[in-house]
Amino acid sequence: MSLYLDYLTEIESRQSQGLAPKPIDDGGLTAAIIAIIEDAGSAQRTDALKFFIYNTLPGTTSAAGVKAAFLKRIILGQALVPEITPAFALELLSHMKGGPSVDVLLDIALGEASTLAEQAGEVLKTQVFLYDADMFRLRDAFKAGNAVATGILESYAKAEFFTKLPDVEDEIKVVTFVAAEGDISTDLLSPGNQAHSRSDRELHGQCMITPAAQQEIVALQQRHPDKRVMMIAEKGTMGVGSSRMSGVNNVALWTGKQASPYVPFVNYAPVVAGTNGISPIFATTVDVTGGIGINLKNWVKKTGADGKPILNNDGNPVLEQTYSVDTGTVIAIDVKAKKLRDESGHELVDIASAFTPQKMEFMKAGSSYAIVFGKKLQTFAAQTLGVEPTPVFAPNKEIAIAGQGLTAVEKIFNRNAVGVTPGKVLHAGSDVRVKVNIVGSQDTTGLMTAQELEAMAATVISPLVDGAYQSGCHTASVWDKKAQANIPKLMAFMNTFGLITARDPKGAYRAMTDVIHKVLNDITVDDWAIIIGGDSHTRMSKGVAFGADSGTVALALATGEATMPIPQSVKVTFKGTMQPYMDFRDVVHATQAQMLKQCGDNVFQGRIIEVHLGTLLADQAFTFTDWTAEMKAKASICISQDETLIESLEIAKSRIQIMIDKGMENAAGTLKGLVAKADARIAEIRSGDKPALAPDANAKYFAEVVVDLDQIDEPMIADPDVNNADVSKRYTHDTIRPISYYGGTKKVDLGFVGSCMVHKGDMKIVAQMLKNVEKAQGKVEFKAPLVVAAPTYNIIDELKAEGDWEILQRYSGFEFDDLKPKGQARTEYENILYLERPGCNLCMGNQEKAEKGDTVLATSTRLFQGRVVEDSAEKRGESLLASTPVVVLAAILGRTPSAEEYRAAVEGVDLTKFAPAKGGAMGMSVHY
After folding, report:
1. Strand 812-815 with 786-789, pairing
2. Which end of the chain has fewer CB atoms at under 10 Å, N or C?
3. Coil, strand or helix at 778
């Protein structure tokens, strides 16, 4: 009873915040609620019934297990609850999405009570979240002659769980809501500093955009009860920055449909749109919820009489509006014709790309992974019955072009493809199910991934996955009460599920807060691998990696598969010579700037960047592949030379071994298996049997970009351009400026060296520069705070062994202590060097931030509004992005340096260098 009383106390607390009772996931509380229900005289019984029926989470939560067992007793007549008839109990089981509910349904369907068995069998025909053990029970019963099992399998073979669902409407009327002008980061929809509440969907929903925006959405719904609200990024792309399932969940919560009357705050089918469409990673997340993502194309470049774009004074194309989507505009989505129409029926734009056969299936089923599970279930049933599966699902588009070679991503997808026509070689545009080799889950989305796994009734990682890692990097900065409540629970769940975890729930090793992308880059030991990670910066320099939402990560963990079209590629090569005073980060920025100059539009958006960085080791090449998320690319592939790849794999092996030595191995021997795979791959390369991945000479690309290193003669800065008169130009990553633009006068309030964009060499650069300054000036004085966060503990250990960490300690005014981690986020900074715990730190912005209104110069990847620094009442916060030496020097000077000051400061410093391959030259960095 104490659990129930505690729950009532929590309900009162939530009521004061305007929140409903929190959905129940605890089996002990559910058992207490059942005891009250069975007590006919209890004054609490009416409320307990409501909690049991409408507020208990489904799937494999402990609450779902207890609920399913009680419903089984009701169905079998072992418990009598007048309000829950056996028929209603079966209906409740049908909404519980697998796990214990499927166990109960199978027990009854395969039992001896024939009438009940048939009824349970009818419910099972609607379920798709069955796993091997469930399917094997059906197979064994079928072989034993069980008629109900036979009927269920026959239904599965016909995919009636899908065909009997309502079709998508021919027309969907919407009313528009412009969420913002310009690119909309998912941080607007689900702020990083509210990450702790993401698994509490109602509470987290309160942080979407602003309370005023939420009220405006409600008002639109009240004025247009027959229409759905379409959320829009005007003059921009919707959902840039990260996949963020919580962002889509929030949009669905406010504008979507309720998935089940018995599951609170789980909505689906949001409608989102952008002038420039939907970011690729966010589009995948929209698919997970059966939503609609539309490319509006409502602003186009104005052209002159010569047909060329008219440019404004800043050299940017002038845009003109083809139709209005101002908030409150009524629009019709003509699903049948795949057109967007105004109220009068006039066609506005073709939206066929939003309604491909596959996307239509996701919409009908309510989620993309219901389709994945359904296809698997149909295949199994047909094989068991010895029949062909009924053609129900849209056939995968298979594009094969005779005589055309393969790009790198086409080669990887063909190698990992599942269920394609035997012997057929596929090209870009083909729809493919692929085996996933490596999966990553990060800590601020991990709780949602765990919820998704519970909801789809998964209990153990798929044996198809070579390795998976759960990080602790996004909550590394501050070990506050929120982290203490969430992270151990997350690590325990993922460790049990079969992942390598950053923290042993049994306390056998200290918490590891290494940045997820760095760890995934180390445990990826095959350049032909496919990686799925719960973060937009899952961009490895080995294999091809896709940032994904928490649901897609859960699906990859549970099934070992992912489904997507083979993307088009853009080839990036280099010519010329890198200046000795330039850092490779400047090459990365220059790539974006030169691409825009060469192509006019961003040809990287939604495509694979195949970057030929053959002479760079994986750690250094990662600086480029990591940045491709900001280039709006779908993913990237680094083409490496044989010897360089071998050296990268040897480094990966040594770091995996360190993880083993620290006690991070699991019972399945995952880490040892990765070392063995690395050895096998090295042997293939050395023998010549399978050289490093490379495209065919006659591969076809969407575009080819050649970066001229000779043009890069001063450091480059990505500027959020916060005061641009055109709102749509603010906070994009496309404004790349040379350092001379600032004239050595722009005040810098804080410098940050850290995040996934830096490697060991960057830490050594900091140490070298500080030594140089002390030698030249007698001492080091900072005119702005400098925050330094190494990506991993391995890097710190290597720096200690090589003497660089001692140098950093000498100049620091603060050094992290794992035995006494910070319990509170820093709100003010002194002009000193801070050596922070490995992890994301300021880049994530959910714990530590710069002071409001600051101008921050960072090695980070994020310059979105409010991410690293929030606005003050007097000034907009700015996050400018630059190389490590520029950031260090700016912190010492308190301003951006001039080009001359920069050159003098880096003289003799071992910067990260790169040279295009010539005659087999490796050109490896001195840092390794």
Report:
1. unpaired
2. N
3. coil
Pairing of strands 569-575, 703-708: parallel
Residues 6 or more apart from 68 whose CB is under 8 A from it?
93, 96, 99, 100, 101, 103, 104
Residues 6+ apart with CB under 8 A from 317: 301, 302, 309, 310, 311
Encode burial over 157-184: b for 16+ CB neighbours within 10 A, e otherwise: bbbbbbeeeeebeeebbbbbbbbbbbbb
Residue-level length of the chain: 928
Please report which confidence band the pLDDT of residue 196 belongs to, taking 50, 70 and 90 as the band edges: confident
3-class secondary structure per residue, 81-144:
CCCCCHHHHHHHHHCCCCCHHHHHHHHHHCCCCHHHHHHHHHHHCCCCCCCHHHHHHHHHHHHC
Identify the burial level of 672 via C-beta atoms within 10 angstroms of its C-beta, where 0-12 means exposed, 13-18 middle and 19 or more buried.
Answer: middle
Point out which residues pair with 708 in neighbouring strands: 575
Say if CB 882 and CB 901 are below 8 A apart: no
Angle at 655 between CA 652 and CA 657, to 5 degrees: 110
**429-460 residue pLDDT tens:** 998 889 999 999 999 889 889 988 988 889 99
CA dist list (Å): 699 to 402, 613, 694, 704, 772: 11, 18, 10, 11, 48
**Coil, strand or helix: which one is 813?**
strand
The residue-averaged pLDDT of 45-52 equals 97
Task: Calculate the alpha carbon distances from 347 to 229, 337, 341, 351 in Å.
Answer: 19, 10, 4, 10
3-state secondary structure of 45: helix
List 278's β-bridge partners, or say none: 238
More confident residue, 919 or 294: 294
Cα–Cα distance between 213 and 251 in angstroms, integer?
12
Sign for the pseudo-dihedral over CA of 625, 626, 631, 634 = positive
- Name the token pair of 31: 């058992």
846: nearest Cα among 865, 872, 866, 829: 866
Residue listed under structure tokens 């994009």? 732
Considering the entire predicted model, what is its pTM? 0.83
